[in-house]
């Protein structure tokens, strides 16, 4: 782990000095406005984290908020066909995201569908109706290795399971008798074993080789299902009265290489770690306004070295922990700066599409993986960062 920390080389002391003291991850001295879109070819200035003089390890690359960020090609063709410029399609209120085959699929909770950011073909499009079941309020999406898509939909209060052909394969959770978008409370009765007192309210799904982990916000637990049969097995935590393992508002999930489960606990102001069978292992963070403390922890992701990235929607930063729970650094600019995080919701890490974004990196900065953050406010709805190092 010492090797990993030395390679990471993020200046914790500098980050603490700059954070939450009114500056919040101050810009490096040479920072200027980043490229405004995925097609901008103007000569850029680069934003790095941590700030100089620490060695740069994370670079802001690009942001996308809609069709206009991919250039005028689509709208010009539509104007040629219909004789007028159509309204630009855009992301409204993003939450969960998943990368697959060059496309970033974004859950747009206010548009009631998926926004498709095709960085491979430089196109923006919408998914609305998938098969014969329209999405209502998709919160999170997880894509398995075989392409199966699991969507936690708050409107149905179900997990919708789609194949690679976009056809509905199965659902987890009973269908509501009356379907309405943006329900304040779950609309259908509880079913199945487990001794739950409240109705099912799924907010995220994590997929292992043989299990499905589903965050149930309304029952303050994670339900675990067999992946093949989708039958209910057990819940996490095993003992909901144990103070160390107890959850108060599970909203997002992640799995590490060893199969351990991480749960962002909105009501507990922390992230909790369990083994694959639900035994409590560790807590990251607590309530507070200092680095490593949370006010509203939401999305999270792990890299291959076990570093944990956690979004704090109130502080509008992403905090990075090592495997022992120590704060390594954080990033996030205040609103009004060149690359702000504005009510961030989700963070994902992707190793498979680095080649699509290397062109945005500073000369000599080699990307190792992507860090992608969704913002529910502002004009940078999806912000893409690259973790790497100067050669």
Topology of this structure?
Elements: H1 2-8, H2 12-18, E1 47-49, E2 58-64, H3 73-82, E3 94-100, E4 103-108, E5 113-118, E6 123-127, E7 129-130, E8 133-134, E9 138-143, E10 149-153, E11 158-162, E12 168-172, E13 202-207, E14 211-216, E15 221-226, E16 232-236, E17 250-255, E18 261-265, E19 270-274, E20 280-284, E21 297-302, E22 308-312, E23 317-321, E24 327-331, E25 344-350, E26 365-375, E27 382-390
Antiparallel strand pairs: 1-2, 2-27, 3-4, 4-5, 5-6, 7-8, 9-10, 10-11, 11-12, 13-14, 14-15, 15-16, 17-18, 18-19, 19-20, 21-22, 22-23, 23-24, 25-26, 26-27
Average of per-residue pLDDT values = 84
Q: CATH H-level name... which superfamily? A: TolB, C-terminal domain
Query: How much helix is in the residues?
Result: under 10%
Distance between the termini: 22 Å
What's the count of strands? 27
Main β-sheet: number of strands, strand sense, barrel status? 5 strands, antiparallel
Strand content: 35-45%
| Class inferred from helices and paired strands | mainly beta
CATH architecture, by name, is 6 Propeller
Large-scale geometry:
globular
- Helical stretch count? 3
CATH top level is Mainly Beta
- Poorly predicted ranges: 1-36, 178-193
Order of helices and strands: HHEEHEEEEEEEEEEEEEEEEEEEEEEEEE
Number of domains: 1
């Amino acid at each position: 782990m010492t090797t990993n920390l030395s390679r990471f080389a993020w200046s914790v002391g500098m980050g603490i000095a700059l954070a939450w003291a009114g500056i919040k991850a101050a810009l490096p001295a040479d920072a200027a406005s980043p490229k405004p879109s995925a097609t901008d070819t103007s000569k850029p200035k680069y934003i790095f984290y941590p700030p100089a003089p620490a060695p740069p390890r994370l670079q802001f690359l690009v942001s996308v908020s809609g069709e206009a960020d991919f250039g005028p090609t689509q709208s010009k063709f539509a104007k040629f066909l219909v004789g007028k410029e159509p309204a630009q399609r855009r992301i409204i209120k993003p939450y969960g995201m998943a990368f697959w085959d060059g496309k970033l699929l974004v859950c747009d909770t206010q548009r009631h569908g998926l926004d498709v950011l095709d960085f491979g073909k430089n196109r923006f499009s919408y998914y609305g109706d998938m098969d014969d079941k329209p999405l209502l309020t998709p919160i999170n999406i997880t894509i398995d290795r075989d392409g199966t898509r699991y969507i936690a939909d708050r409107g149905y209060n179900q997990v919708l399971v789609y194949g690679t052909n976009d056809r509905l394969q199965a659902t987890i959770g009973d269908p509501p008798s009356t379907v309405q978008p943006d329900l304040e409370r779950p609309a259908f009765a509880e079913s199945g074993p487990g001794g739950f007192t409240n109705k099912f309210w799924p907010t995220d799904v994590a997929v292992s080789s043989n299990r499905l982990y589903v965050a149930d916000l309304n029952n303050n637990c994670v339900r675990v299902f067999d992946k093949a049969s989708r039958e209910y097995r057990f819940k996490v935590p095993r003992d909901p009265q144990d103070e160390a393992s107890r959850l108060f508002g599970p909203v997002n999930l992640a799995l590490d290489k060893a199969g351990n489960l991480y749960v962002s606990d909105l009501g507990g102001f922390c992230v909790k770690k369990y083994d694959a069978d639900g035994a409590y292992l560790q807590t990251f963070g607590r309530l507070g306004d200092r680095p490593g403390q949370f006010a509203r922890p939401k999305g999270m992701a792990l890299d291959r070295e076990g570093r944990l990235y956690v979004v704090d929607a109130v502080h509008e930063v992403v905090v990075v922990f090592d495997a022992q729970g120590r704060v390594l650094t954080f990033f996030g600019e205040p609103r009004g700066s060149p690359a702000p995080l504005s009510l961030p919701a989700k963070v994902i890490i992707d190793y498979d599409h680095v080649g699509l974004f290397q062109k945005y990196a500073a000369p000599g900065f080699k990307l190792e993986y992507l860090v992608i953050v969704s913002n529910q406010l502002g004009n940078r709805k999806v912000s893409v960062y690259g973790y790497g190092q100067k050669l």
